[in-house]
Write a structure and sequence with these properties.
Elements: E1 5-9, H1 15-20, E2 30-34, H2 37-45, E3 51-58, E4 62-63, H3 65-72, E5 78-86, E6 89-93, E7 104-107, H4 112-122, E8 127-130, H5 134-142, E9 148-151, E10 162-168, E11 175-182, E12 194-201, H6 209-218, E13 224-231, E14 239-246, H7 252-264, E15 267-275, H8 292-306
Parallel strand pairs: 1-2, 1-3, 7-8, 7-9
Antiparallel strand pairs: 3-4, 3-11, 5-11, 6-9, 6-10, 12-14, 12-15, 13-14
Length: 310
Amino acid sequence: MSATRYTYLGPEGTFTEAALRTLPEAATRELVPMVSVPAALDAVRNGDAAAALVPIENSVEGGVTATLDELASGEPLMIYREVLLPIAFALLVRPGTKLSDVKTVTGHPVAQPQVRNWLRAHLPDAVWESAASNADGARLVQEGRFDAAFAGEFAASTYGLEPLVTEIHDAENAETRFVLVGRPARPAAPTGADKTSVVIWQREDHPGALLELLQEFAVRGVNLMLLQSRPTGAGIGNYCFAIDAEGHIADRRVGEALMGLKRICPKVRFLGSYPQAFSAENMRALRAGTSDAEFVDAAEWLARCQDGRA
């Protein structure tokens, strides 16, 4: 395995590359762009890279389905950290292009909902066609296949383009969350501001089936940060659920919730416990009865009862 190689959703000039370069270790790694999320993750699976950075959630569009589906299937991988990156688009064009010249535009499919209102107001007649990534859209503009691309302003120089308009976003403070994914190993120690990610499959579809799964978290005071259903491919109505929960697998409340899920679900895939991208000050206070000390106290009380010492 190449311990110095990190892959990412390419080509050069993507927001994913920008997010990867915020990691301190990126300066000492070989950063290799890949054509797709599956390709970036498969490089980790087959030992060609130590880790991959891929987008997993957008504050406007929600979960990135390509990443969620890839992590839920195939050889298991594990998330080791996350990166939050503010997202604003620039309209990149070939030099000399005016706004009135733009008849065709491109960008990643996740970008379109983030600029839809701007397009309607400024380029109502422009035809949109999706690209594999925003940077790939810029490349297609460079090649003359489209008039303009929505991408990061930083991608302009890479593809010989100019930012015709900058700071384009329909939603203020839009962010995308990226995750650094590697092969499974022991999770890092808890930091006090952690997140645990899992994918769970329900045993059967019946009234209250999802509620039963969520109660494993609720009764232990575990807050959920992401819940997204994804089809399993086994037919209409068959879903698995990608879940992000506050806390670390080493926290008693989280560990017991996962054990509860393992008892009632046919399959649970642990995707990792890792530091959240924001500080502990943003963590919700624990509900009464859900701290590790209170779980230990309850276990000791049960043991005394079983020994006749209660």
